[in-house]
Amino acid sequence: MKKKVLMSLRTSAVCASIAVTVNPLTAFASTNRPALQQKSIALNGKIVSKPSAVVHDGTTYMPIWYIMQALDNANIHSTWKSPVWNLSTSHTPNVSDLHVDNGSSSIYINGTFVQRINQIVNVDPSSGNQTTYMPIWYIMQILNCLGIKSQWNGTTWNISNDTQILLTDYEVSSPSAVSGQQIVSYAKQFIGTPYQMGGESSKGIDCSGLVQTVFAHFGISLPRTAADQAQIGQTIAKSNLQPGDLVFFNTDGQEISHVGIYVGNSQFISATSSQGVQIRDLNDPYYWGPLYVKSTNPGI
């Protein structure tokens, strides 16, 4: 039996957490094209398109035309004239803390430059034409600057312009479907994987990406960010932690900025920016212990 979780989406214009890891602009030759995977774009839980996406170095890139159409439905209009993408919206962005990175494409909001990101150029199978693909994870961060929440579960990108949304895309499997030890055993296969912000594979992964990927392997869909994952399931006491539970930390001044999977014996596994996926002591008095915020059981 599945249960649906009602999630309150807190609009936030804080962009300090954006630290875009750029990849080089890639124009794939016809003999060296990456495999395309069908993904979905949804608005307020309703699928609006199913484009073919490029997954490159652990990051998902979607065709910009489909992204623009979805944003248009959310009242964010845009124009694309390579390499400039200009977003037009009534939302007031807060970019005071935004760190501008290097990249091949420039993003403007209401005519004001806000960020650079890299793009991929590849053939769109629907049209047969060369198409620009944008890294979806980094677009989510730009939207967050506008106070617009979106979630990515590895298959569906759901944009919300509502204050609340019933997360039908994030249904939690019944407790009998998978054990906590199964979750832990699978997570350990990622030990040594390098850290990559926005990464979703064994080539590179971030903390919430690891949690989402591990649980998705067992058919349990979770939101993409640590802050959103912290809203799923039942909050439990630290003393009652069981393998497979989630542990959350404040590592950069935000309420929730890091997540890991409890493995037992006061240890947890997570993707750290310094050493990649590692097992660490939850009660480490010099770092993790003081940064611990809460624990949850996500429904296993």
UniProtKB/TrEMBL annotation:
Domain NlpC/P60: 177-299
One Pfam short name: NLPC_P60
Keywords (A to Z) from UniProt: Hydrolase, Protease, Signal, Thiol protease
PROSITE patterns: NLPC_P60
Signal sequence interval, chain numbering: 1-29
Family the UniProt entry places it in: Belongs to the peptidase C40 family.
Protein name: NlpC/P60 family protein
The organism of origin for this protein: Alicyclobacillus fodiniaquatilis
Native organism taxonomy: Bacteria, Bacillati, Bacillota, Bacilli, Bacillales
